[in-house]
Amino acid sequence: MAPIIQIDHLSKRYAGGTTALDDVSLSIEAGEILALLGPNGAGKTTLISIICGLVTPTQGTVRVGGHDIATDWRAARRMIGLVPQEIALEPFETVANSVRFTRGLYGAPPDEPHIEQVLRSLALWDKRDAPTKTLSGGMKRRVLIAKALSHKPQVLFLDEPTAGVDVQLRREMWQVVRELRASGVTIILTTHYLEEAEEMADRIGVIDRGKLLLVRPKDQLMGEFGRKQLTVELDAPLAALPEGWGLRGITLSADGRSLEYDYDARADRTGIGRLLAELGRLDLGVRDVATRQSSLEEVFMALLAGEQAAGGQAVGEQVVGEQGDAR
Question: What residue ranges carry the coiled-coil annotation (predicted)?
Answer without folding.
Answer: none
